[in-house]
Give the backbone structure.
Amino acid sequence: MKRIGTLGIVALICACLAAVPALAGNVVGKVTYAGAAPAPKPIPITKDKEVCSREPHVDESLVVAADKGLANVVVYIKDAPNAPKMAIPAKAPELDQRSCKFHPHVQIIPAGGTLDILNNDGILHNIHTYPKNNPPINQAQPKFKTKMPIKFDKPDTIKLACDVHTWMSGWLIVAPNAWYTVSGPDGTFKIENVAPGAYTLSYWQETLGTQTAQVTVAASGDVKADLTFPAKK
Amino acid sequence: MPAKNEEYARSVPLLNMVFALCSLGLLLGTLWMVWDDYYRSWRPVQRQFQALTAKHTEEALRQAEQAVNQEELKKIQEELQAVETRSKEKRKQLDELNEKRKRNTVRVYITDTNFKNTKSVFDAVRFAYEELAHQHSPRAAKKLEELHEVQKKLTEYKLANDQALTEQAEIKKQTEALVGDRAGLDMKRQDLLAAVDRLQKKLDAVAPKGLVMRAFEHVRNAPLLDFMAPDLKVQQVVLDNQNKDINFVTIPRVDRCQTCHLGADQAGYENDPQPFTTHPQQEIYLASKSPHPVDKVGCTVCHRGLDRATDFLDAAHWPDSPEQQAQWVKSHDWHPKEHETSPMLPSRFIESSCLPCHQGVVHIPDAKKWNHGKDLVERVGCYGCHKMKGFEGLRKAGPPLTRLTWKTDPQWAYPWIENPPAFRPATWMPRFFGLSNNSSPADVARTQQEIRGMVTYLFEKTEPGGFPKLPGTGDPPRGEKLVTSVGCLGCHAVARLEKSPPSLRRRFGPNLDGIGSKAKPEWIYAWVKDPKAYFPETRMPNMRLTDREALDITAYLETLKAPEGWKPGIAEADPKLQDELVKDQMRARMMEEEVEAKMASMSEHEKELYLGQRMITRYGCFGCHLIQGFETTPPIGTELSEEGSKEVDRLDFGFVHIPETRQDWITEKLKNPRIFDEGKVKSPDEKLKMPLFNLTPEEREAVVTVILSMVKEKPQMASTYLLDSRHKALEAGRRLVQEHNCQGCHLLDGEGQDIRVTIARQLMEEGLGEEEADSRAVAFSPPYITGEGARVRSDWLFRFLKDPTPIRPWLSVRMPTFGFTDEENNTLLKYFTALSQSDFPFETPPVQPFPPAEIAAGKKLTSTDYFNCFSCHQQGARKPEGDPSGWAPDLALARSRLRPAWIEDWIKDPQKLYPGTKMPSYFDPGSFETSGPDDVLGGDENKQIQAMRDYLLTLGSDRSGS
């Protein structure tokens, strides 16, 4: 009884906080690439062709839309000690290795959360991580293991690979807080519920590295931040 | 009493005065003597240590008190209080119970005594009966009756005793029920306060409280009384095994260092100042369970100094740095102890004390600096000129000069001899000219003629012949790719490729800078194809390069040119000066007339040759190089085998003001080998001639450590580190590993794989991030082979070492052919098996046919539906799909190559055996029981692994039919 009471009070406070219009704004914008859009480079499939060729494979390391919008850019607020922790969702986020390709190519998951790695290809995959802070993983995922949950404790930027299918490449961002997002195929992004203040906005792309921009978030409403990566040398 | 008017020869009152003064003087003198004998510098030190220990103990006591669970203590005390109160309240009942208990205690005692007495009677009667029965005596029957009688009594007494004991327990229970369990509570309280009590006792001992105890302390340490039980006293260890040579007689060492260094062997004084600091690394030194327990090894065997001294200056302390010296001068009025032949070693050279006991090993465990120094001595080749015990039988450090014309030309050799680092800054070849005692214009003019002579001699005394023209032209970029990928960089460095200074193992072979300005392309081509053809003793292995590859590498190496500003060429001849020099040399060996006659008979060229030969003799070039005409000439340097014991007065410090110690002299000599000539008047031939080696200050210190370690004193057998047969096998292998620089490529014995940094660099250049490159470099480097003895079969390894074949298809780096002899091969096999503690030499392959059901299960598990092993692994002629860089070793080789037990361990947890391997984990060590498939072999993971192992062992054998 007592426990439920406490929980109820906590829930009530949470509800109140949610109901009261919080002092928070959103950072919205679009990331563009200043250089020429590279032509999509097809990846030759050399192994398990029957399964892997179910989808077309192109190099995803730099995907630029017709209007120069840049996909798969991780945009986040740098040095944000007051940022809330990213909530761990009830259903774990998934990383699918469908047709020998990581879906999605870049994914953000909360620190301390679990990632379900799926293999519905019916062949052997092998998830191999190259982390900075978390322990490295080199785990085989044979046909009979369709789902493999793996927990990531520390904030990190992790390169994903598969030694069986050497072309497979993906990135996992283990976020320390909620003010992280990844740009869509058209380059647009939105970081929601940012407490008002002046911040440094960082944006990272796997082949272009990290850039920063300044942004001031108001007590409510959207602040626009259009970001650009200079052309690769 | 004498009468008043009696006469005396002397005035009595005066004499009385004189005697009184004398006795007083005598008394004072005695007191002074006693005090002087009593007051020693170590006494206040021991007092300080007592105070320090008291401080630490008080602190520990405070902490222990805080750590006590106060709540529980309070509870126990309350309960005890309650017991007390109840006892008072129920005084009457308690007294009754106590009375009862007392009575019953007597009963217990009586019944117990009765039982024990009767038991001995019973044993005696039984013995008597058995004796009679054995003799078939008619009295046996009667005795048996008696025995039964006694037995009955015994049973009765036992019963009575049991009853008494039961009653005793009952009384205890009643008492507890009445007032509570006092004894149990007391016990709990004691347990809770155990640490506090122990520390309190210790504190009472080190810092006695109360006037009486303190007075007692003073009395027992008082002069003259301190022969009984003082707590301030000299601490010493007598070391029967560690003798000390004091001229014509040896005596055992008696180390009294711990008289002041009281905390050295105790934990807890790590952060206290000297002399109380805990000795570092107790697991290795001083602790009784360490390999160097203080009561067997002592202190001065390693630290040197005077063992029996109990005073700071007497002990011959030696400062580690100028700062420490300044501090000591202030605190102890420090100055070098006169006539002390063995002052203490500054701690930066302390590892030089390991060698006398650790003989016959390649490296001394944990002695990093000494090991580094030893590697450096081998690399720079000190032993070429100086005889050094332990460095006998090594190959000359430099290449042979007997086929010089095949490789290079005089235009290159002249400036190289004159100043090697100008051509190749990181070379091991030392510099002889342009140093502090031969840089004046006159010296330069003379040395130019000397070098001319040497070059002429070397290029004249060379085998005729040369290498054929190149069979084609190579492609430098392709050559660079080969140099950076096939494994050259495990032993060689190229300055333009390096991001940080290469490690010592990567400086095993010469650094390749400028090779294109030095060696002829034909020589490079022939050399990389087959090094032993040119230099049979070379350590450079055969990389099994194709003609095409060798051409490409040659083309690339040709692009590595000399640094800007370096010019080939030979100094002008100066016949007049040359004549002078030649005459000077001759005069030392013949009469003036003979000199003139000989000079007149010689051509210019002959004179040049003569001068060259004399100069090669003088500088000792043949110590490191094989030179025609000098094949058996003995080395020119001082023997260094006992340099660490050499008397300091036998070292010539000249006019140089440095501290007069061995280490300072040797350090200075290495820093500037000609410095002790400064200010002296010497003829050119008398001048010092040791060359300048290209060493950093750290490297110099390491080399000095090795030279200091070569001492005359030999420890007794009992105290040396003896090698058992396993360790002998290990050391023999380590010698070969060292000689062939295996660790330049492989991680072995906990060290090596220096090549990995170059592979990570390559991967980063291909566009990988730093983490990914570092991580992938593990898999793309030559394999870890520390566990090779457990991994592969000895017979396979024997064949592989003779003729390596690629095992790992994804590696560009190649295992070279070293050309080991059978004996060397066996040494390596024994080494690997000793390292892995596995069986030597051979393990019989399993001959029994495996159960077909198991093999079928194993086959199923390796199939695409399960572990899909052949997605990456080759299986004989059956190759996996995709690029070979993604393939894994041929499993058809498992049968002949791998040890079955290893296969099992490997499948179970590859990352444990080989952190960073490409092989993914199939079984999760964290949840092993559930990580295999459920529908094969009943889901039993261990059985699954065994089935796969057995299946793999059937592959590649004709019998399996595959």
